[in-house]
Predict the 3D structure of the following.
Amino acid sequence: MRVVRSSRHVVARAAPSSPPSFLVLARANRVVHGVDFRHVVRRGRRSATPHAVYYRVARDVSDPMRFGFIVSRAVGDAVTRNRLRRRYRALARELVDAGGRGQDVVVRALPAVAELSWLELSREVRAVLGSGS
């Protein structure tokens, strides 16, 4: 029986379901550790709307802007929560691309956010975070 080895020259392809790179929020722009989430929520400046609570902590101006999202089961089923996270990530990417730097932001979504359209959500995020970036 002959054993066929795979070639080392095979080029890796992106999965067909993976999002384009321009839609992904870079790791440098994400709050990923629980310690960082807790720090921002406990020490951050709080801004509340009927749909979400935004916490912000200033950092060095040379540091990238970082985002974290808290979307609990109270917001809706898994499809709704994941859609909401994708929308928040896209808005965060727009703010980072517009030159946002020097702060950590954590967004805690409230159940009422599930009914917002993309345009309404975008307006709310820009109203709360756009002026402070």
